[in-house]
Amino acid sequence: NAGVTQTPKFQVLKTGQSMTLQCAQDMNHNSMYWYRQDPGMGLRLIYYSASEGTTDKGEVPNGYNVSRLNKREFSLRLESAAPSQTSVYFCASSDWGQAATNEKLFFGSGTQLSVL
Amino acid sequence: GESVGLHLPTLSVQEGDNSIINCAYSNSASDYFIWYKQESGKGPQFIIDIRSNMDKRQGQRVTVLLNKTVKHLSLQIAATQPGDSAVYFCAENIQGGGNKLTFGTGTQLKVEL
After folding, report:
1. B44–A43 CB contact, under 8 Å
2. What would the pLDDT profile of A36-72 be if each residue is shown by its tens digit?
């Protein structure tokens, strides 16, 4: 059982380049999330999708866009990368939304992104 | 905005001792709390959770205590083992705010042999 799978695991970008981080979950969860983790700051929510077809901003959405492609997949796009977006990005899913109320998040293994 | 904070950034314990990791929260509307363990280079892994209608919950070697009066949460690890070395995060969910966990900054637990 793979759980939450993120690709790529590592990425180096130049300022201004664009890229998409991919995330897929095989647990049939309703909700999916993107967090970033910076040293000393814990995890901060970028965007989330409470259910297929919906997306909402989190705490730090500027500079990012997301797409809930289907129930399994939730991608994060950086249109014009900036050094401030150097971070570790985690995708997560939970069985929350609609009739489900399980708040527990299951995380992927992360993508380490460096923007030069 | 509201935030979840931790009292100690680093905690060192001897193997076999009990560990206590503390967490303070400031939002009285939070109704769900959860602890995660993160090993180096990996994603956070669920340890234990507790709802605001409970004061204590036990798992395997772990216990979470919730004191709503002083807005304090703690994670107790019994008989700490080298494999427990990791960063531990607490997180809270605000009632009615959707499922958007707010994380603390983490505590590094180091187990000394």
Report:
1. yes
2. 999 777 899 999 998 888 999 999 999 999 999 999 9
